[in-house]
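FORM 7B: Structural annotation worksheet

SECTION A. Query
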Amino acid sequence: MTQAISARQLLKVAYEEALGGLAEGGIPIGAALFTADGTLLGRGHNRRVQSGDPSMHAETDAFRNAGRRRDYGSTIMVTTLSPCWYCSGLVRQFGIGAVVIGEARTFYGGQDWLAEHGVAVTVLDDQRCADLMTEFIAAQPLLWHEDIGVTEAADD
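SECTION B. Predicted structure
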């Protein structure tokens, strides 16, 4: 990232996407893919509920919206929440060079694995992102558990 653009400035785009997803009745996770100089390539949010597509996580939506590139090594995936294993796999599969994470308090995904494999990982510990997810999880625990692949017994 250049000094002209900060990770927190990039996070604003992903956070706006998360709010958009929540307004649509979905899970409030947003993401955006940028070039190293901060040019926005694509943005998106978790659309699993809205589209009925279980694979439409925020990072996937942003990646698809960015379009095809020959090389992703100098791109930055910015996400409001630590990426799950599925989205971490996307980052590794396509060689995305850096990931900026809004928060990892409410969900700790594959960020250590990404870092171990050469991805530059930055965790901002953004309070707005943490509050957004904390409130959503409290209000929609079953939907949240569905999103992260946790099944609960009917008695829970």
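SECTION C. Observations
The chain is about 40% helix and 15% strand. The beta strands are 30-34, 40-45, 76-81, 98-103, 120-123.

SECTION D. Sign-off
Analyst initials: ____
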